[in-house]
Predict the 3D structure of the following.
Amino acid sequence: MKIGVVSDTHLSRTEKGLPRALTEEFRHVDIILHLGDWVALEIYDMLARLAPVEGIAGNNDGAEIIQRFGESKIVTLEGMHIGMIHGHAPYSRKGTDGNALLAFEGQDVDCILFGHSHQPLMRRENGILLFNPGSPTDKRREKQYSFGLMDIEEGKITARHVFYDSKE
C-alpha cells in the first residue's frame, strides 16, 4: 500500500491549488493522510480528486474541519496502526515530536504522523516510526517544500520525504 502524507497546507479558498509536485505523486497513492492545518475544507476536495483522504484538524482549522475529522485518531491500514495528530497541543516541552509521542502514550501504534512545525522529521523511537512530512506550501525556515510518501509492505512501514523548490 502506498500512502501520501501531507500537513500544513495553509491554503485559503482564494489560492489556486496544491503544488504540482504533490499532485503528481498523490495520483499514484492508495490513500492520502492529512495531518491538519488544512485552513479551508476545499483542500479536502482537491485531494479527494487524487485518492481517498483521511485526516485530522490542526490549530489553524475551524469548527467545520474539527467536527469532520477530529483532532487525533488511529487508523489501521494493512494491519498497521497509524496515529495521526497535528502536534500543537501543549503535552510537553519536548517539541512537536515529543507532543506526538505523548499523545499516543500507552496505545498500540506502529507509526505516529504529525505536523505543526513545518519541519520534516523521520526517526524511530521505541520501535515507533515518527514522521512529519513538513509543509508543501509554507516551508518557513526550511530550504525546500515537502510532503511524505509511505509504503506498507509485508507488515513493515517505510517512509520518505519528497522535497522540491516551487510551490506552483
User: Anything to note?
Assistant: Strands lie at 2-6, 31-34, 53-55, 72-77, 80-85, 111-113, 121-125, 128-132, 145-153, 156-164. The radius of gyration is 14 Å.
